[in-house]
Amino acid sequence: MSNCDSCSSKGECKSKESCSKVFPKYGKIKSIIGIISGKGGVGKSTVTGILAVKLRAMGFSVGVLDGDITGPSMPRILGVSEKRAEMVNIPGSEEVEFIPVETSSGIKVISLNLLTEEEDQPVIWRGPLITGVLNQMYTDTKWDDLDFLLIDMPPGTGDIALTVMQSLPVDGMVITSIPQDMITMIVKKVVIMCQKLNIKVLGVVENMSYVKCAKCNEKIKIFSKKGAEEQAKILGAELLQELPIDLDLTESLEKGSLEEYLLETFEYEDLVNNFLNKVKL
After folding, report:
1. What is the pLDDT of residues 238-254, one digit of tens each?
2. How many domains does the chain have?
3. Looking at the domain assignment, is residue 17 inside a domain?
4. Is residue 2 part of a domain?
5. Of 195, 197, 175, 196, nearest to 186 (Cα)?
6. What's 239's domain CATH number?
């Protein structure tokens, strides 16, 4: 369903006809941002969580769509894994409306793990069914009015990434990587995919970039001698921020207390400020 009134490009689009983009039925979203990587385990869900919590703390209305259908982690990261999203039948129609779960600070979250009884049940589906579920969670969720919808993308350049980039009015992608040449090579495939599909790359977050010495605060490189700027240049994108290996952050992710931890630290303010400088609301 195309709806120019809720499109972030309204007033700037040159098209004389309705586009093929899909818009949510129950709310308006100012900016849709995907957080993606070419490979799993590099921290894209962590980056999604950091951005969501910090943006909400700054007063923005934020939603998170867990687009990693077969490996959803956002409910646990944001501390809502024990809750369940509601599915409401719309009177007089066959349509449904998903009521997202809200975190303690008011971040709206929808994930397949919030729509199933047990979070450890595997999703054994083929591509078309997975993309169909993603589209429905996006279009049929009661988002109301959001400043940001952050989509935690699955790794790689497969069906879901293609669906999001081609069907949703995405305003940009944040690329997550780690400082290893092998990973950089794989992540660059995502950057090139975005370029081919005319999706703006907002920048690269280099995760696990270093550890900080507890005694002298020196940054110690673990995975590569190359600097974060050099790695970003190889990817052909601007560096948004380099993030350290942070054991306290890791512990908060495992406990589902990310919000509480981030609201007590200023460590990730630069990432959010650099992100906001790249996004137009």
Report:
1. 999 999 999 999 999 99
2. 1
3. no
4. no
5. 175
6. 3.40.50.300
Q: What is the pLDDT of residue 191?
A: 92
Give how far the C-alpha of residue 219 lies from the chain's centroid of Cα atoms, to the nearest Å.
27
Report if residue 103 sits inside a domain: yes
The pLDDT score that the predictor gives to residue 17 is 45
Nearest to 202, CA basis, from 47, 96, 21: 47
Predicted structure pTM score: 0.89
CB 151 within 8 A of CB 65: yes
Distance separating alpha carbons of residues 6 and 280, to the nearest angstrom: 15
> Would you report the helix, strand and coil content of the chain in percent, each value rounded to 5?
35, 20, 45
Looking at the domain assignment, is residue 132 inside a domain?
Answer: yes
Q: Is residue 150 within 8 Å of residue 52, measured between CB atoms?
A: yes
Q: Which tokens sit at 223? A: 């995975």
- Domain that residue 254 falls in: 23-258
**CA–CA distance, 201 with 94 (Å, rounded to integer):** 38
- Give the DSSP letter of residue 141: B
State the virtual CA torsion across 157, 162, 166, 172 in degrees, nearest 10: -40
CA 175, 176, 181: angle at the middle one, nearest 5?
Answer: 105
Look-up of token digits 């309705």: 18
Q: How far apart are CA 1 and CA 258, in angstroms?
A: 35
Q: Name the residue with higher pLDDT: 9 or 93.
A: 93
Place of tokens 């303010």: 269
Amino acid at 194: C
User: Would you say how long the chain is, in residues?
Assistant: 281
DSSP 193-222: HHHHTT--EEEEEETT--EE-TTT--EE-S
